[in-house]
Every structure is written in C-alpha cells, then in structure tokens.
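re: that chain from earlier
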Amino acid sequence: VYTMNVVDHANKLEALLAVYATLRSVFAEVEVFAEEGDLASGGRTTFVLFASTKPSGITQARDPQDESLRYVRLSSGKIEAQIAKIGAIVLTDDYAPIDRLVGIGEL
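^ sequence. v structure.
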C-alpha cells in the first residue's frame, strides 16, 4: 500500500489528476479521499490517496481527534471521467511540473 496526500484546488484538480494518473500507471487500485464538504467550497483541499493491488474496502473515515471531520472516498468513475474531459499528465522523475498544476481555475 502506498499512501500520500495532495493539496489542490477543488475546482481545478490538475495536480490531483496527475498524481492519480501516475499512481494508476503502477497500481491496480487508486482511491481518493477528501474531507466531506471541502469539495463544495471549490477552495484548496487536501486529498488522501491510497494505491494498492486491491481495493481497501474503505468508503469513509472519521478523525479520531475530531468526530466532526469525516473523509469520504471519491468515485473513481468521476475521477476517470474528469481525466477523460481535461486530461492528466503522468509525472516522471524528468517531468513533474506540480507547481504549475496547483492553482486556481474552473472545473
């Protein structure tokens, strides 16, 4: 299992989609979680990605320190549809313009 977090704007998602596409090029399963409500704001959001050979079976999680924080898994179908719509680069050691992918834009 590989886990990482990605900070991106919820109304743009270019950095998230690039990291997702990169992980999908290596792992059979990639799951994305976000704090419930953050996506609706369209602002800066922290996403948590799990990559593995099989599904985690997790659909949501709560913060043990703050029960009001609930993280939900995003639909992989919606993520794949967004990649098909706007595209996503696969990041490499030689090409990883993550600083240019994070920014404000329209989704």
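The beta strands are 2-9, 29-35, 44-52, 60-63, 66-73.
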